[in-house]
Design a protein that fits this description.
With about 260 residues, this protein is mainly alpha-helical. It is about 85% helix and about 0% strand. It has one domain (about 55-245): MetI-like (MetI-like fold, Orthogonal Bundle). It has eleven helices and no strands. The longest helix is centred in the C-terminal third of the chain and has 36 residues, at about 160-195.
C-alpha cells in the first residue's frame, strides 16, 4: 500500500506543480492569446458538451484506433518477414530507410489525391506514420531471438506457424510493445494534423476553428482535452502492456535473483 501511494505521489507531483504555477502565473493575464487558466477551465464544461464529444471527440478516437490498428498489423507482419529472412532484409532496408525519413505530414496532400478527403485519408495518414516504429522494432526483436532457444525448437520439430507463435513472437514481444508505445504518441499527433486539413469534424478541426474565430480560451480548452486524452490512452496502453508482458517481467526478476 505504501509503495502504491509513493508511486501515485511521484506520478501526480509534477503535473500538480505545473498546474499550480500556471494557475497563479496566468491569473492576472489580460492577453487575449494567453488567458488565465481559471478562464479556460471555467468554460470547458460549456464547450465540450455531450453533443460535441459525439460529433468531434469520438470520430477522432475512431480514426486513431483504425489507423493505429492497421499500422500495428502491418508493422508486425512485415517486421516478422523482414527480420526472419536475411535476403528480404537486405533488399528492403534501403527502401525502408528512405520511406521512414519522409515525414508523414508531407504525405497528406499525396494521400488526399488517392484516398479523397474523408475518413479513409485520415486513417491512412495515421497508419503511414505509426507503422515505422512498429516495423523497425519488430525487425530488431525478431533478429534478437535467442539462438539456443531457436535451435532447440527446431530440434523438436517446431517450425512454421508454431515456431512463430511460441518462439518468435514471445521473444520479440517486448520490442514490439516498445514500437507500439512510440507509435501511439505519433498517432495522436497525426490524428490532429490530418483533421486540420480538409475536415468537417474532429479535435484537430475544432481547435483550428476556435483559433480562426479568435475563441482563444475555447482553443486552449481543446488543447488541454487533447493532452488528457493522450494521458488516458498512455495509461491504458501501460495497463495492457503490464498484463501481456507479465511473463517477461517475471523472467527478468528470476534472472536478477540468481
Amino acid at each position: 500500500m505504501i509503495r502504491v501511494l509513493r508511486r501515485l505521489v511521484f506520478l501526480l507531483a509534477l503535473p500538480a506543480l505545473l498546474v499550480t504555477v500556471w494557475w497563479y502565473a496566468s491569473d492576472g493575464s489580460r492577453s487575449i492569446y494567453a488567458p488565465p487558466l481559471r478562464t479556460i477551465l471555467g468554460i470547458t464544461d460549456e464547450v465540450w458538451t455531450a453533443d460535441r464529444f459525439t460529433d468531434d471527440v469520438l470520430p477522432s478516437l475512431w480514426r486513431l484506433a483504425a489507423g493505429y490498428a492497421l499500422a500495428g498489423a502491418l508493422g508486425v507482419a512485415l517486421g516478422v518477414v523482414t527480420g526472419t529472412y536475411r535476403t528480404v532484409r537486405a533488399c528492403a532496408e534501403p527502401v525502408l530507410e528512405f520511406l521512414r525519413a519522409v515525414p508523414p505530414p508531407v504525405l497528406v496532400p499525396v494521400i488526399m489525391l488517392f484516398a479523397g478527403i474523408g475518413d479513409t485519408m485520415k486513417v491512412v495518414v495515421i497508419a503511414a506514420g505509426c507503422v515505422w516504429p512498429v516495423l523497425l522494432n519488430t525487425v530488431e526483436g525478431v533478429r534478437a531471438v535467442d539462438s539456443v532457444q531457436d535451435e532447440t525448437a527446431r530440434s523438436y520439430g517446431i517450425g512454421g506457424a508454431a515456431r512463430l507463435r511460441y518462439v518468435v513472437l514471445p521473444a520479440a514481444s517486448p520490442q514490439i510493445f516498445a514500437g507500439l508505445r512510440q507509435a501511439l504518441s505519433i498517432g495522436i499527433i497525426l490524428m490532429v494534423i490530418s483533421e486540420m486539413t480538409a475536415a468537417s469534424n474532429g479535435l484537430g478541426f475544432t481547435i483550428v476553428q476556435f483559433q480562426r474565430s479568435f475563441a482563444i480560451p475555447e482553443m486552449w480548452s481543446g488543447i488541454l482535452l487533447l493532452g488528457l486524452i493522450g494521458v488516458v490512452l498512455s495509461l491504458l496502453f501501460q495497463l495492457a502492456e503490464h498484463r501481456v508482458l507479465a511473463w517477461h517481467r517475471g523472467l527478468r526478476r528470476s534472472q536478477r535473483s540468481r
